[in-house]
Design a protein that fits this description.
It contains 22 helices and 17 strands. It is an alpha/beta fold. The strands form three sheets. It has a seven-stranded mixed beta sheet with strand order 3-2-1-4-7-6-8, with helices on both faces. The relative contact order is 0.11.
């Protein structure tokens, strides 16, 4: 990825100038209370800026992308594909196992590691031809499950997929060749999702917002590749068995066994690669509560790594830059408490009459605004168009208080109990938001509104006089007003995101556009596929005066979706120029062809570009006022896929056709 050295230099110079001003001219030291709040705000800013500038400077390092994979030798290295499972629905596990078995590789064995001891999964493995493993003791969660399986399998390489992940057919063919170099310890690929996460789905922003993980896999991981500090991400990776055995297997002292094990392998002297190709996809959490649980586990597990032998600050074998990179990734979780401090900073003036930051008109125009605006404008380019500047902050705001609680508890030596992220939809109706998510956001919003009221003309001098604090400048009041308004808007969006859009089921639907034909009563109706899933499809129809008239409950045959295969199709819903239906009884061959099309084929998942935010913010604000309708025919949450045999990426998400990427705003 081409970086922008001039942008890094510009931001560094503007940041240095901003920090010089903050230390010398912006602190409010008039009273002990003002000094305490002012220094606390400065400390929070320093925490956030330290991580930002480290990542920024890492982009200046010479690029070392993963080399082109060598051809698979003959005989091919044996690969054990491990699928740890703990309570996921059986149909979801079957989808993963079928994807693993379908990988285009001559020598791999698929193992299901079932920590729920379900007989139906043992029968499933027997039917599919997989190995089934269940252990008597379930200590150390996922890491213990993987280590137990390592004692039973003997492959030269080990691939790991979570039970909700489906690899593409070329996954092993693209990754195994990189192990021709004996110095390579593991190869990590991106995590992609085949459904919209709760933030995108609840606000109906599938066309306008990229998943939060995109910036990690398209910006942060490539820079870690340049440092040989690649982060092992828990799924969709391949490891050399010898490297695993050398470090004692997967780390069991932290829930983030992936991160800790990857650090140990790097410290052991291995070269690791990040292959920036979307070669698999899994399921994002279905609800905001489940996503909060996932993020809290990530944060707590990462920080617990500091208490293990994989602590990057103490483990021997890492270079200074590797220590810095891994440590920044772990300590990054302390930016959440820092951001909570900055969220509350405008409240200081509106509630206490104390300004933690003092602005003059000149400093605002010549120091603060140039630095802030340059960050907003350059974020898309620096991140490889993986994220915009403001909207992705929603992910932090919604889960800010729970993550802060988890981070503080872990830092005090009392980490939360490990909880698996649910992978099934419970019920179809909306059950209401989780109070643990909603109430803190409501309290913060109420405080922002009270602060804004106190900042009204004529009230601030009275408040400041009551506190015995010197009056502040008009520039300071203006900045705090703007800051409070932005906080209020983001809090409204975060609150709105807590209401989960009702699901029909957990089956993901995809936006896929290919020409198709419906055969009916001896006639043919031409159309174009709009949406497809493992359970059905939606089509736009071409008008034909002499064509047959379609009706709900018609039994049809769909041609053109799978080459050479006609799929039975039962019409369920008709709309002007469109038809939706479910698949009829499919033969095993038809089901396999359909699953290959929507889950496994090469070049399936596109790399999208985050749209320019000035185009999206008005729509996003409008959607906070609209009712969330349950998913139904022609009103679905869709993730785009590339058509078969097309290798070019899709345009920006905002430029995708509205009916092909997300529900209409009125829905």
């Amino acid at each position: 990825m081409t970086r922008l050295p001039w942008a890094v230099l510009l931001l560094t110079l503007l940041g240095a100038r901003y920090l010089a001003w903050r230390f010398t001219a912006s602190l409010n030291l008039a009273t002990p209370l003002a000094a305490s709040l002012s220094l606390l705000t400065l400390a929070a800013e320093l925490v956030l800026l330290a991580g930002f500038f480290l990542q920024l400077w890492f982009t200046l390092l010479p690029e070392r992308p993963a080399p082109a994979a060598d051809p698979i030798p003959t005989p091919a290295p044996s690969v054990d594909v491990l699928v740890p499972s703990c309570g996921e629905p059986a149909d979801l596990v079957e989808r993963c196992l079928r994807g693993c078995l379908a990988m285009d590789y001559p020598s791999h064995t698929v193992w299901l590691l079932d920590d729920s001891d379900r007989p139906e999964l043992a029968e499933l493995c027997d039917r599919l031809g997989c190995r089934y493993v269940a252990r008597r003791e379930h200590a150390h969660a996922k890491a213990g499950n993987l280590n137990h399986a390592l004692r039973l399998c003997k492959g030269e390489l080990v691939a790991v997929f979570d039970a909700d992940v489906v690899p593409l057919q070329p996954f092993l063919r693209r990754t195994v060749g990189l192990f021709a170099d004996p110095a390579v310890g593991f190869v990590q690929t991106p995590q992609s999702y085949m459904n919209a996460d709760p933030v995108m789905r609840n606000l109906r922003l599938e066309r306008w917002l990229l998943p939060d993980e995109e910036s990690f896999y398209r910006w942060i991981q490539p820079t870690r590749q340049n440092l040989n500090a690649v982060v092992c991400a828990g799924t969709s990776f391949v490891m050399r068995r010898e490297a695993l055995e050398r470090v004692g297997g997967f780390e069991t002292a932290t829930p983030s066994e992936d991160l800790a094990t990857g650090i140990r392998i790097t410290a052991a002297g291995y070269r690791n690669h990040y292959l920036s190709e979307k070669l698999s996809a899994g399921l994002a959490p279905f609800t905001a509560t489940a996503m909060a649980r996932q993020r809290c586990r990530w944060g707590s597990g990462s920080l617990q790594t500091l208490r293990t032998g994989a602590d990057p600050l103490r483990i021997p074998g890492l270079s200074p830059l590797q220590r810095l990179a891994y440590s920044e990734g772990i300590l990054h979780w302390f930016t959440f408490p820092a951001q909570l401090v900055l969220l509350c900073t405008p409240l200081s003036l509106g509630l206490l009459g104390v300004a933690p930051i003092l602005f003059s008109g000149d400093a605002l125009l010549t120091v603060a605004m140039p630095f802030v605006c340059s960050q907003l404008l350059l974020t898309r380019w620096l991140s490889g168009h993986a994220r915009a500047a403001i909207l992705p902050e929603l992910y932090r705001w919604i889960f800010l208080v729970p993550i802060c609680a988890a981070v503080v508890a872990t830092a005090l030596g009392r980490p939360r109990r490990f909880l698996v992220t649910p992978k099934a939809v419970v019920g179809r109706g909306a059950s209401g938001p989780d109070p643990g998510l909603l109430l803190p956001l409501l309290v913060l919003l109420a405080l922002q509104l009270v602060a804004l009221w106190n900042l009204a003309p004529g009230r601030l001098p009275l408040l400041a006089g009551q506190q015995g604090v010197l009056p502040v400048s008009a520039a300071t009041v203006g900045v705090v007003l703007g800051w409070s308004l932005l906080n209020g808007l983001l809090l409204l969006l975060a609150i709105r995101s807590c209401w989960d859009r009702p699901h029909r089921d957990g089956v993901p639907w995809f936006a896929l556009s290919v020409p198709v034909r419906l055969r009916h009563r001896g006639g043919i109706v031409h159309g174009r596929l709009r949406a497809v899933s493992a359970t059905g499809a939606e089509l736009g129809l071409e008008r034909a005066e002499d064509g047959p008239t379609l009706q709900a409950a018609d039994s049809l045959s769909l041609e053109g979706l799978v080459p050479g295969v006609a799929l039975p199709f039962l019409a369920m819903a008709l709309e002007s120029g469109a038809i939706g239906g479910v698949w009829g009884p499919l033969t095993p061959s038809q089901r396999d062809e359909l699953d290959t099309l929507i889950y496994r084929r090469e070049g399936l998942w596109p790399t999208l570009r985050a749209p320019f935010e000035l185009r999206t913010l008005p729509l996003v604000l409008l959607r906070t006022l609209q009712r969330v309708a349950p998913e139904s025919w022609f009103r679905r949450s869709l993730i785009p896929q590339l058509p078969p045999l097309v290798g070019l990426p899709l345009p920006r998400r905002a430029d995708l056709p509205a009916r092909a990427a997300a529900p209409d705003p009125a829905r």
